[in-house]
From TrEMBL:
Matching Pfam families: F-box-like
Full protein name: Uncharacterized protein LOC117644951
InterPro entries (alphabetical): F-box-like_dom_sf (IPR036047), F-box_dom (IPR001810), LRR_dom_sf (IPR032675)
Species, as recorded: Thrips palmi
Chain coiled-coil ranges: none
PROSITE patterns named among the record's database cross-references: FBOX (PS50181)
Domain annotation F-box: ranges: 5-51
The organism's place on the tree of life at top rank: Eukaryota
Length: 441
């Protein structure tokens, strides 16, 4: 049934805007030619402030007509540099890929123009060429001078080189504004150093991936730092007294003898302010020293989320013994399917606040049906009526699965859910909660 256009135009502006909000950017530009009223409404700021545009043809029209854009992704800086020359469009999020010197020169034009309009509050920069390239250094100057930038993502794969010669960092007068910094690099470079020093008063979240030498002295000077992701290192002990730091993600890294860094263990043992800790890939460490240190820390009484816990065979008893020390723990993430000794340690008495137990399986042949019907799994759900099991990696069940439960046609809708419990879904349950404990089919 086709709708009469005249009936649509009888709607008030607010209602019509709500209808137009369901259209894609290309459809909005098409609708604006239908009449004068739609011409104006289809360019309303509300409709474009979250728009994501990457197609060059559509981007040309949007930059010429739209008042703002939510996100622009640039893989061809040369083509986009010409499009932004005369624009008045404010772009909130910008993503740019730089492969060579020419890319860097055009990217500088894009960043400079769009930031001058008051946009580029979030920037993703993918640098695939050396930082010592003069045009790259000019681009980094433009980036560091963006006024009011809030989030910055940098992925660097090229060599650093003699960057100081082309980027006179000390000559720049910069104002702190950055709240979130994600930096992917194998070594500290002058640009990262400048970012951390400049934005130390405002940075709240710092993610340093692949970086083995962590600039802990600079991190320790950040009064608002709440979230940190990095490799463990001895220098982490310098951050133990940082009162604002609440969430830490420690990514896999071990010493030559296979032990967890002593400084990282000391950091966990002394910290009193942590609320969330993730051990990402630390099962290769071969030691439970990190979890034991956390259980003995002043933070243990306040932590509400722990993930990446090692349940390797030799550590089961000690892991189970540490759990009761986390009385306010709501989320527990295990790095593999837990054995019975760990499941038995989970009860309303030991972990009274636990509501989600996340399990990650790397066994591609493991069937979710069979695992959920294991007596130990059924038992932990029945004993913990408020608990939800969350599977992270077992949702795909092959059509030819040979387990008995699949052959019997066990609840075929199971694979459409991610949270499993012993109760029917309640108002406070996750949306994808499904009752499995005690069911026979």
């Amino acid at each position: 049934m086709e709708m009469d256009e005249s009936q649509l135009l009888l709607l008030p502006d607010e209602v019509l805007l709500a209808v137009l909000a369901h259209l894609e950017p290309r459809q909005l530009l098409q609708c604006r030619v239908l009449c004068r009223r739609l011409r104006d409404l289809c360019l309303h700021r509300r409709l474009w402030q979250t728009a994501d545009v990457s197609d060059l043809f559509l981007l040309r029209a949007a930059l010429n007509l739209a008042p703002c854009l939510g996100e622009v992704r640039v893989t061809n800086p040369e083509a986009v540099a010409y499009l932004v020359q005369g624009t008045a469009c404010v772009v909130n999020e910008l993503s740019v890929q730089v492969c060579d010197q020419l890319n860097a020169a055009f990217a500088t034009t894009i960043v400079g123009k769009l930031s001058a309009l008051g946009g580029v509050k979030e920037l993703s920069l993918h640098l695939l060429c050396p930082l010592s390239t003069p045009s790259v250094a000019t681009l980094l100057k433009a980036v560091i001078n963006i006024d009011g930038i809030k989030e910055l993502f940098v992925r660097r794969t090229g060599a650093v080189g003699p960057m100081e010669a082309v980027l006179p960092l000390s000559d720049l007068e910069l104002r702190p504004s950055l709240r979130k910094l994600t930096y992917l690099s194998c070594e500290v470079d002058p640009f990262l150093d400048l970012l951390l020093k400049t934005h130390a008063p405002t940075l709240e979240e710092v993610f340093l991936f692949f970086l083995h030498e962590i600039p802990t002295t600079l991190l320790g000077s950040m009064p608002r730092l709440r979230v940190l992701a990095c490799h463990p290192c001895d220098g982490l002990s310098e951050l133990a007294d940082l009162p604002s730091l609440e969430s830490v993600r420690l990514m896999s890294r071990v010493t030559e003898d296979g032990a967890f860094f002593a400084g990282a263990v000391d950091f966990l043992r002394r910290s009193s302010h942590l609320r969330s800790v993730e051990f990402n890939g630390t099962r290769d460490v071969g030691s439970d020293a990190h979890l034991v240190a956390l259980a003995d820390s002043p933070s243990a009484l306040h932590i509400n989320a722990i993930s990446g816990v090692d349940v390797a065979q030799g550590l089961l008893e000690r892991v189970a013994a540490t759990l009761p020390k986390f009385s306010l723990l709501k989320y527990l993430g295990l790095d593999s399917v837990p054995p019975n000794v760990v499941l038995k340690a989970i009860s309303p008495e030991t972990l009274p606040s636990l509501s989600v137990l996340s399990v990650r399986s790397t066994d591609r042949g493991m069937c979710l049906h069979a695992w959920l019907h294991d007596p130990a799994v059924q038992d932990v759900l029945v004993r913990n009526p408020n608990l939800h099991l969350y599977e992270a990696g077992m949702s795909t069940i092959p059509d030819d699965c040979a387990c008995a439960w699949c052959r019997w046609g066990c609840h075929g809708t199971l694979q459409h859910y991610k949270y499993y419990s012993s109760h029917a879904r309640r108002a406070d349950c996750p949306e994808e909660c499904y009752q499995v404990a005690g069911c026979s089919s």
